[in-house]
Specification:
The protein is built from 19 helices and 18 strands. The strands form 7 sheets. Strands 11-12-10-13 form a 4-stranded mixed sheet. A 3-stranded antiparallel sheet has the order 4-16-8. The protein is globular and about 65 Å long. The protein has a domain at 58-160 and 329-371: D-Maltodextrin-Binding Protein, domain 2 (3-Layer(aba) Sandwich), CATH 3.40.190.10. By secondary structure, it is an alpha+beta fold.
Amino acid sequence: MKKSVLSVSSVLVLLTGLLAGCGGNNNNSSPSASSSPVASESSAAASESGSTDAKPSGSITVLTQRTDIVDTLQKEFTAEFNKAYPDIRVKWEAVQDYENNIKIRMNTEDYGDVLLIPNNVEPKDFPTFFEPLGDYEADKTKYSQIDAHRFEGKYYGIPMAINTLGIVYNKKVFNDAGVTTVPKTPDEFLAAMQKIKDTTDAIPLYTNYKDDWTLSQWADYLQPAAGDPNYPNIGVLQDPNPWAAGKPYNDIFKLMYEVAKRGLIEEDPTTTDWESSKGMINRGEIGTMVLGSWAITQMQGAGPNPDDIGYMPFPTNAAKLSAPLSADYNWSINVHSKNKEAANAFIHWVVDESDYASKYQGGFSAKFDDGGNLQIPELLKGFQDLGVTMELSTPGPDDLNGVLTQIDNDSEVGIHNPDFKKRLIEAAIGNRDESFEDIMADLDKRWNKSWEKLIPAQYKK
């Protein structure tokens, strides 16, 4: 497969959100933070030398959100891994509603050996739950975006894939509706959705309301809405009122509200079904879905019309079409694991050697090549041709590391929770006696109170 190259050697990203490569129904004693990473130089050298005696062995349980392909991972993918590590027995465990259920399990010591770090874990808590994978400064030029899960010089997660953000759409539905130019602004997008409603039988935008994570990820679209890679980790934290009219958060959720208010979504959002929706968009029964680029391959493979699936930029009034290159869920090691060496070997083989990112997550590996580049897959070439600049969000300064999550938790806004998104849709379709402005004002008031308390003085204008 042809690939284009993006140079990212000098830029890393810090995102508290993620592009959740979701499938299926995706839906504390603490060690010292300075404890040694599980991968020692001696074990690495032994591995490179090919000495089977030095290779780790034993059994590990790997938790995944991919309930739809867990059997394939257990059989085909594990068989590939065992060619490199024949003495490690891998058991894959699919977790329904991963984000919520894994947080519950993390109140115990039983959350697998290898797992995906859920959202909203504050950096200070990383050592409580996860084993460090290495020194951040030593490895920041080896893996992309490990700064998102760093604490006191160590990093605790490696992205299982790098993706970007846009909207999956059915090109035939657009053509049938007479929409010949991909919409790039909110007004253009709403007009296109109205044409689809008026001239076809397709649902213009499918929210997948019932599967909470599909609504939650709208909050990740800060960079596209702002048109600025500096905004997600710097600009938003310097703004005491980021939910006010004209700000990126407000713009994102105004679009969500408007498509619902205008009847451009499914007739009964409470009856949506994630797995069924994949086939529906492939067959032309759905026009668009707001999903990360990881979804492209899933939609292409869900029916007989893979060539009808396209990817467009998230609509924005910003001058620049900027899409983040962002980490999906991050692989990590349970700090309570009884077989950390085997868990570490698994993670590094998956990221460094396997095709997991491209084949199973529709993205690309977080490992830089020798030139400090990430390899952009061919399936995103059309996205680039629309004028989109895919670029890493600018990392924030060290003293703002984790502050977005702290504000979010303290304010109980719930950036990556579904609650206020469902509140918006319910208000839009008339099931709640609230306006869009009422909801945004409530979020902004709570956010501002926590912002005033938690933002360092030097960042307050």
